[in-house]
Structure formats: C-alpha cells, structure tokens
Amino acid sequence: MARVSQEHLDARRRQILDGAARCFARNGFHGTSMQDVLKEVGLSAGAVYRYFPGKEDIIAAITKETFAVIRGAFEEASRMTPPPTPDALLGRVLGGVLAGEVHGLERRAFAALVVQLWSETLRDERLAALLDDGYATMRVAWTKLVDAYRSAGILNSDVPGDHVARTMIATAQGFIVQEALFGDVRPEVLENGLCGLMSMNPQKIS
Strands, DSSP E only, in the chain? Predict the structure, then answer.
C-alpha cells in the first residue's frame, strides 16, 4: 500500500478546518454539529475523526490558527524600521488580516468567527489558555514597539509601554468587533480616526 504523503495529509486537514470554519461562521459553534461539518467538507466521519477526535478539537485548532494569524501580523509590523505610527500600523495590519480570506472566509465572516472565538474562551479553559498566550506575546511585541517610538522621540517617556500596548490591542479588537457586527468598516476609517485623535493638542483641552 502506497504511503500517503504529508502534503496530502496537510491538505485534508486544511479542508476540514476551512469547512468547519465556514459552518461556525454561519451558525455558531453550538449551532453546528459534527454532521454539519461532515456535510460541508464532503468527507466520512472516519476521515474527519482521524484528524480530530471531536468538534471541540476542531474549534481548538481553528482558535490556535486564527490567533496566530492575527498575532503574527502585528509582530511582523512591530519589527519594521522605522516603526510606523499607530494609525498607519493598525490600518495596515488589520486591513491585511481581514482581506486575507483566512479559512476561505470573506472579511465580515472572518471577523464574526474571531468574535465567537473570543466568546468561547470564557467557557473553555483550553481556548482561554491559547488566548492568554497570544495576548501576552502581543503585549511584549507592542511594548517593544513603544520603546521604538520613545527612541524616535515621538512618544512621551512617562507613558508606561504596557499601557500603550494594551490600548493599541484594544483598538484592534474593537475594529474587528465593529466589522463583525456592522460590516464595511474600512481600515482607512480607523487610520484616519486615530490620526485625528493623535493630532489633538492636550494644552488646549486643559
């Protein structure tokens, strides 16, 4: 019997994850059964269970991949020299992530899937651990970016780097939530809005 190539195994795993992601984006995790996934991917139960013992394992794999895509995009951007300002950075990265058709989903469906994943971490310890790890890694990367802003003289030295990092992450999360709920949230809108806020004169406010 000929050995199945790793390429074939990887392609089959990809087929299952992408099909399951489409189901979850349409109907939610709890509204999707394994039978729904099997029908979507056109495979037998045995073929799917060879890769994933159950639905929770598929959800965990999708969570890990999705968070890795988002985290990787921001980590890559944080290593740019010179570092782009927050408005340009967030607009560029989020535009790229949402336009990338992750799991074969269009941007609003992908954003909806991300929001569902965040929600699911509140009840699933395994998913929560994946999210915690990704969040901690992003905070470190963004704190380094804040240090680069300081070195460039464009950020006040008395602002804690972790505070800035967490605020930037929160802005990115809010953008994804808006896309999931309302759609048509263009990256340039976020970029322009942040640019406007950054141009405010605190002396005139006080």
Answer: none
Q: What is the pLDDT of residues 150-168, one digit of tens each?
A: 887 777 778 888 888 888 8
Residue type, 14: R
DSSP code for 30:
T
Q: Are 115 and 185 in contact, with CB atoms under 8 Å apart?
A: no
Q: How far is CA 194 from the centre of its chain?
A: 20
Q: What are phi and psi of 81, to 5 degrees?
A: -130, 125
H helix and E strand count, the chain: 10, 0
pTM: 0.81
What CA–CA distances, in Å, run from 67 to 34, 61, 122, 128? 23, 10, 15, 11
Token readout for 29 is 């995790």
Q: Are 88 and 170 in contact (CB under 8 A)?
A: no
